[in-house]
Predict the 3D structure of the following.
Amino acid sequence: MRKSIFSALVITMALSVASMASAAELKIGIFGMQEVATKSEAFKEGDKKLQNTFSKEKAEIEKEQAALKKMAEDLNAPGGKLTPEQLEEKQLDYMRKKRAFDEKTGLFLRRVEQEERRIQQSIGALIVKAAQAYGQRNNYSLIMDAASAGVFHADPSLDLTGEILKETNKLWKENPVLTPPSKPAAKPGPDKLD
């Protein structure tokens, strides 16, 4: 809602300024920021970095998940030869391992989300820089992201998505730097638990 109001205000101000300057021609362009982001070389590189950073740990979590599943199946198998005390001990052991697994998985997912957010912010800043550079070079009065500006209809001739994508990739090739992944937090050992 705020973005729509802000966008309407920006457009109104731009049109007001343009109407006051009778000699100046208003040149407006729109683009799909989400489309530019997902098709950019920076996005592909960011995705590759995420895979490289987290694939080993993801595989370990999947292996641990399979072991827990097997453990649960064994506990629920009919005709078990365990005494009630042994069964209770196995169930408690399963619950402890499941709780530890859930905590480990939660921490892992938070770290992945954090890195995704950092990369998305870095790509977003690159796209903004590309749109500004393209706009200045081509004398645009206003370039907006169609989604965040709340554009429901626009003449196709205003669409600069392809041009902004090219500019984004050009800037990326000149300086291919994403925000580096943060260092993984130290994993608490048994003696470091609070």
User: Anything to note?
Assistant: Residues 125 and 157 are 25 Å apart (CA to CA). Residues 84-137 form the longest helix (54 residues).
